Amino acid sequence: MRILGINAVFHDPAAALVVDGRVVAAAEEERFSRRKHGKRPVPFATWELPEQAARWCLAEAGLEPADLDAVGYSYDPDLVDHDLDGVDPGWEELRTTYARRAPNFLKTALPGLDPGKVRFVRHHVAHAASSGLAAPFGDAAVLVADGRGEATSYLAGEYRDGKLAELAAQRLPHSLGLRYEDLTEHLGFARSSDEYKVMALASYGKPRFRDELSEVLAALPDGGFLAAPVDLTRFAPRREPGADFRPEHADLAASVQQRLEEVLLDLLRWLHAQTGQPRLTMAGGIALNCVANTRLLAEGPFDEIWVQPAAGDAGTALGAALHLAAELGEPAAPMPGADLGRGFTDAEIQQALETARLPYDRPDDLAATVAQALADDEIVAWFQGRAEFGPRALGHRSLLAHPGHRRNLERLNDVKGREQFRPVAPMVLAGRARELFERGPVPSPHMLFVHDVRPEWRDRIPAVTHVDGTARIQTVDPADEPLVARMLDEFAARTGIPVVVNTSLNTAGRPMVDSPRDALECFGSSPIDLLAIGPFVVRRPA
C-alpha cells in the first residue's frame, strides 16, 4: 500500500509517504517555499497546499501520483460545528469549503492523482496516529493536546493491536493550546509560532498568579478540562512587539506554564487509571513543551513517554497516512528517525559550491576538522544527511559552538537574530549524558525533555545552561549518528567536554536550512566561521 498524508489546514503544511506500513519520507512545505510555517498573507495564511513537499515525497520513492492507493487529509470538514462559542462562522465556512475542495486542489497539484482516493482523517486522530503508531513500542496510551481540531482541542485514548480506542475529548472553546496561544500573543510574540519563547521566558518569572488561574484552567473528573478564554490584562499589561519586558510578563508566563503542567498531570492520572498502560505517547502542539513533558515523566503515572518529534500540525500528515495504512490492514513499523526530509549527494553539493564560486576543501577527516574549529571557538554550520522532520535541529541542519564560553549564547542569538533570553541546547554522547545531566530521560534523541545540569558542570558548559539550571539535551548514539558522534569524541579529546552547542541552522523568521543553496545563503549572510556541508568545508575569509 502506498499512502500519502497531507496537512494543509491551520499551519505547518506538510506531506508524508508511507509504503507498506513504513515511513519513507516526510517534509514540511516551508523547507521548499521558504515561508516559515507555510504562512501567506490573509486570507490564505493557513492553507498552503504542500505541493512541493508532496511531489518530493513521491519522487523519493520513485512513485507517480497515479501509483497511490490512498491520500489522507488531516481534517474532516464534516465534523466542524459552526455554532461553537468563540468560532467565527464566516471564517470556519471558508476553511471548511477549502478542505472540501482539497481533493480537486490535490488533483491539480499532482496530475494523475484520482481525487476519489482522498480520504478525510479527523485532525486529532491524525495526531494520535502520528505518535501511537510511530512509537518504538506497541500498545500504549495516547494523549493529544493542541489549539484545536474540527470542534475539539484534545483526545485521550489508547492503542491496542494498532487500533485506537478513544476515551475522552474536549470540545471548544476550552483549549489548553489556544490559551497558550493567547498568552503568546499577549506577551508580544507571534501566535501559533512563538509559543516556545513563552516557555523560555517562564524560567525568568515566579508563578504568583497560579492560584487565580486554577479557577479557569482545571482538569475535570471525566477526563476533560476547563480552559475558556480569560482576560490576561488582569495579570499583566499587553506587551507590544519590541517593547521591554516587565517582571509581571515573566510571572504570567511562569504561572500559565505551571498551571498547564498541573492540568496535564491530572489528565495523565485519569488516563492511566482508565487504561493501565505503562507507556504513553503524545502529540499535538502542547507536546512540544519540553518543560511540561519532563514534569509529566517525573511526576506522572507512566513509566515511559514517547513524543512525536513533529508533534505540531506537520506531524498530522504522517499520522493521516499511518491511520489509513492501519485501516487498510498494514501494520505500522516504528518511525525510523526524524531525518525523513531531503538529502543531497556529494556531487550535488559540490555542484552547488562550484555554482557559487566559493573556495572549498575536502578534508581527510571532517569530524576532526570541525572539532578543531569548535575547540578554537569558531561557529560552525553543519549540513549533513537528510533534513529533520519537525522543529528541532538534530545534527543534520545545525549551528554548532563551544559550550564552555558563556558569550557563545549571545553570539548564537546574534547570528540568528533572536531574543537574548532564549536558550540554546547541548548535544551530548548518549553514553556520557549521565555524567553531566540528571533528571529527564536518557536516551533523549529528539530534544523533547529538559534535564538538570549537574552542579559541577554548570560553570564548565555555561552557554547551554539555562537560567534555571536546566538544558534541553539531545543525546547522540554512535549507531544512529556515527559522524556526529565522532565529531563529539574529537571535541572531547581536545577540550575534555563531551558536549557541543546545537541550535537550528536558520535566522530569525526563516525556516530551517534545507538545501545546499539555503546553507550557502545562510553562511553568506551570517557571521558563521565555517560551513561543513557534506564532505566539504567552506571557510570565511580572514
TrEMBL record:
<dbReference type="InterPro" id="IPR051338">
    <property type="entry name" value="NodU/CmcH_Carbamoyltrnsfr"/>
</dbReference>
<dbReference type="InterPro" id="IPR003696">
    <property type="entry name" value="Carbtransf_dom"/>
</dbReference>
<comment type="similarity">
    <text>Belongs to the NodU/CmcH family.</text>
</comment>
<protein>
    <submittedName>
        <fullName>Carbamoyltransferase C-terminal domain-containing protein</fullName>
    </submittedName>
</protein>
<dbReference type="InterPro" id="IPR038152">
    <property type="entry name" value="Carbam_trans_C_sf"/>
</dbReference>
<feature type="domain" description="Carbamoyltransferase">
    <location>
        <begin position="2"/>
        <end position="107"/>
    </location>
</feature>
<dbReference type="Pfam" id="PF16861">
    <property type="entry name" value="Carbam_trans_C"/>
</dbReference>
<dbReference type="InterPro" id="IPR017945">
    <property type="entry name" value="DHBP_synth_RibB-like_a/b_dom"/>
</dbReference>
<feature type="domain" description="Carbamoyltransferase">
    <location>
        <begin position="117"/>
        <end position="322"/>
    </location>
</feature>
<feature type="domain" description="Carbamoyltransferase C-terminal">
    <location>
        <begin position="371"/>
        <end position="540"/>
    </location>
</feature>
<dbReference type="InterPro" id="IPR043129">
    <property type="entry name" value="ATPase_NBD"/>
</dbReference>
<dbReference type="InterPro" id="IPR031730">
    <property type="entry name" value="Carbam_trans_C"/>
</dbReference>
<dbReference type="Pfam" id="PF02543">
    <property type="entry name" value="Carbam_trans_N"/>
</dbReference>
